[in-house]
Design brief:
mainly alpha, two-stranded antiparallel sheet, 17 helices
Length: about 300
């Protein structure tokens, strides 16, 4: 019966197949249009990075300058500093932020009380839906020198108030900490979904064989979600230069710019505020190329250690 239906479907023309599955195509059409308009059409404007672009003329009428924009980019004040800050902040977010959802997912999975697990998942996932504008207000309230609860606690233990959002030595810690708080719930949901695919009989067999809780976590849980961890790490490395434009724009200020200015804010300042569109486009393309190289390299590395990778 199944074979007959498959043969009948294959005999139909493309138009007939679309008509028979029009509800499905209508469902995916918005996503298809979104990717065409906002992901693929902008590829045409990559040429801005290699031309002397002016907003008053058409893109294809711009004078081709080759790699001159990249030479200007390297000599532009602040670019190398922004690049350095981008890698430093990205490194901190990966080292401190990437393991947190894994640990939290394992801890929630080990809890036996289902109501407690549901409440905990909801609470840790809720910040994912809060915009950085709102989180910025929360951070300003918590870290205020005069009325912030953090500085009030420091005063209680005999410490001096700290201007966390204006002190260069603390600002990156604030960025990383607030990013972990906002994003850890989303990662936790992904790892919990992967954990549910592990066969429960493996835990039962390990318990019968005398394996302790930590042994079961290490040999069964972590092994069962290893492929998910690798895939998400590769994706994270692909977005390594995306360190949070909105977050830095909301929380940053002129006092911490030497440690907070990243490629995204550099492109915003050079492209929109200074009107150097070609140089900003060159910086954006540079960031994309670096991301592509990191994704390919990390995928190859994952295959060398025996994982299936992403591609």
């Amino acid at each position: 019966m199944h074979t007959t239906l498959t043969v009948d479907y294959q005999r139909k023309s493309v138009r007939q197949r679309i008509r028979d599955s029009k509800a499905i195509y209508a469902f995916v059409l918005p996503a298809f249009v979104y990717f065409i308009v906002f992901r693929y059409m902008p590829i045409y404007f990559i040429q801005v990075a290699f031309t002397d672009y002016r907003p008053t003329i058409r893109v294809w009428e711009s004078v081709w300058v080759g790699l001159d924009n990249y030479r200007q980019l390297l000599s532009t004040p602040g670019f190398l500093l922004a690049l350095r800050n981008t890698f430093i902040i990205a490194f901190y977010k990966i080292v401190f932020g990437f393991p947190i959802p894994i640990i939290l997912a394992i801890m929630i999975n080990e809890v036996r009380s289902r109501p407690f697990k549901r409440v905990t998942q909801t609470l840790v996932y809720l910040p994912h839906f809060i915009s950085w504008s709102v989180i910025g207000g929360i951070m300003y309230s918590l870290l205020s020198v005069e009325t912030g609860i953090v500085n009030e606690l420091l005063k209680l233990v005999g410490g001096e108030p700290v201007f966390f959002l204006g002190d260069r030595s603390y600002f990156r810690g604030v960025l990383v900490g607030s990013d972990i708080w906002k994003s850890m719930g989303w990662g936790t949901v992904l790892y919990l979904a992967a954990i549910t695919n592990i066969d429960p009989q493996l835990y039962e067999a390990a318990t019968i064989d005398g394996a302790g809780r930590f042994q079961r976590i290490y040999h069964i849980t972590l092994s069962g979600i290893r492929s998910t961890i690798v895939v998400l790490l590769i994706i994270r490395l692909g977005n390594v230069l995306e360190v949070g434009f909105e977050q830095i724009l909301v929380l940053g200020n002129s006092m911490v710019r030497p440690v907070a200015d990243v490629l995204d804010t550099f492109v915003y300042r050079v492209g929109l505020q200074q009107g150097r569109h070609s140089v900003a486009a060159a910086a954006g393309l540079f960031k994309t190329l670096v991301a592509g190289v990191l994704v390919i390299a990390s995928d190859r590395a994952s295959k060398l250690i025996g994982d299936r990778g992403l591609f």
